[in-house]
Amino acid sequence: MDTPVQLIVGLGNPGQQYEQTRHNAGADFVSALSEYCGITLKLESKFFGATGRAVLNGQNIRLLLPDTYMNRSGKSIAAMAGFYQIPPEAILVAHDELDLSPGTVRLKIGGGHGGHNGLKDTIKALGNSRDFARLRIGIGHPGHASEVVNFVLRKAPQSEQQLITQSIDDAIRAMPLVATGQWNSAMKELHSQ
Predict the structure, then answer these.
(1) Hey, CA dihedral for 99, 4, 110, 35, is it positive or negative?
(2) Closest CA relative to residue 131, chosen from 139, 123, 141
(3) Is-contact 46 177, C-beta < 8 A?
(4) pLDDT band at 85; cut points 50, 70, 90
(5) What is the separation, in whole angstroms, between the first and last Cα of the chain?
(6) How far apart are CA 122 and CA 176, in angstroms?
(7) Which letter does DSSP use for residue 14 in this model?
(8) Which domains are assigned to the chain?
(9) Catalytic residue among 23, 95, 116, 191
(10) pLDDT tens digits for 134-161?
(11) Is residue 191 flagged as an active site residue?
């Protein structure tokens, strides 16, 4: 895949009670990326979220933080993708990943939703397309499926949060490559961390 990314979305839940919870790792990534790019995200009601335009490696890229709650993320993504005519393969969705340990971050092109409600809704809202890329930010797993909801909606202990923050920093360093469609180079850089 060599499609330059045009839209980077960070999945999470809006509201103070969800700030810096594990489930908001994707939103935390986009917030950190907007800081890195020196832009402020502004609420845009027609996109159901906060958005801004960044320039990465000479490419114009839209950043989006849906404020629709996780399980309705697709509404926001589809609104923006439709308005700017951005195809699914030019979208990168950053999200928390139970199957990776804190400190691990991976890029993935396409695939299923793995039970993640934000991805599930995004696939549906994009006309059942699974062609968008994902930035999977490891948060670890509580060990049992029945504990997942409480686990993702809580803040990680400081030691784990430091690892998650470090992985977000690592991912930001790979974004200039993603911006120009150099996915293999970006993966090589990230996956060797």
Answers:
(1) positive
(2) 123
(3) no
(4) very high
(5) 21
(6) 24
(7) -
(8) 7-191 (3.40.50.1470)
(9) 23
(10) 999 999 999 998 999 999 999 999 999 9
(11) no
